[in-house]
Design brief:
This protein is mainly alpha-helical and 184 residues long. It has helices spanning 7-23, 30-39, 44-52, 58-70, 76-84, 89-100, 123-138, 146-155, 158-166, 171-180, and strands spanning 27-28, 120-121. The chain is globular, with a radius of gyration of 17 Å. This is Clp protease N-terminal domain-containing protein.
């Protein structure tokens, strides 16, 4: 599948692996893919993200991702569903952090000695990559670009899609912006 990726899309995947490595994460996640997309300039996805989520709104987006990481990756919808069952995720996070420190539920391993070789991709990140292929095929595009990765991120559900949607980056908004813009 990677042979169908454009240079920009390959750079996003490499950038995501870099984000995972710098954060000490055990695997590349959808969040790392988004962070790598946000690093990009002069690509179709970067142009769309610049329009839909300009630089001054990015700290809020990153904060939403960080807050979700503190909740062990649970989306707000997940936390609300658990609240309906009488489980207060906020209280659980507070107790765990009281005992083990802030971010204890984030799940990132910080010990550098445990890992060697290539970083794996989480199930969610693999789903994004697979969906990017489906999106490209549905749009009748011959190659998978970083814009297809962005579109796929908006459809996977979970924390990243929720944070993007909260900041106006939905599949429909991205699709409209791509359709309205000339190819880069």
């Amino acid at each position: 599948m990677f042979e169908r990726f454009t240079k920009a899309a390959r750079d996003v995947v490499k950038g995501a692996a870099g984000h995972a490595e710098r954060s000490g994460a055990a695997a590349v996640t959808a969040e790392h893919l988004l962070l790598a997309l946000l690093d990009r300039e002069d690509t179709r996805a970067a142009a769309v993200l610049g329009r839909l989520c300009p630089a001054e709104r990015r700290p809020d987006l990153l904060s939403a991702l960080s807050e979700a990481r503190r909740r062990a990756g649970l989306s707000r919808a997940d936390a609300e569903a658990l609240a309906d069952l009488g489980i207060d995720v906020g209280a659980i996070v507070a107790r765990v952090e009281e005992t083990h420190g802030t971010g204890a539920l984030a799940g990132d391993r910080k010990d550098a000695g445990w890992w060697s070789g290539r970083r794996t991709f989480s199930r969610e990140a693999k789903t994004v990559l697979e969906k990017s292929l489906r999106v490209a095929l549905a749009r009748k595009d011959r190659e998978i670009g970083d814009e297809h990765l962005l579109l796929a991120l908006t459809t996977t559900g979970g924390v990243v899609a929720e944070a993007l949607a909260d900041h106006g980056v939905t599949y429909a908004a991205v699709d409209s912006a791509l359709t309205a813009s000339a190819p880069l």
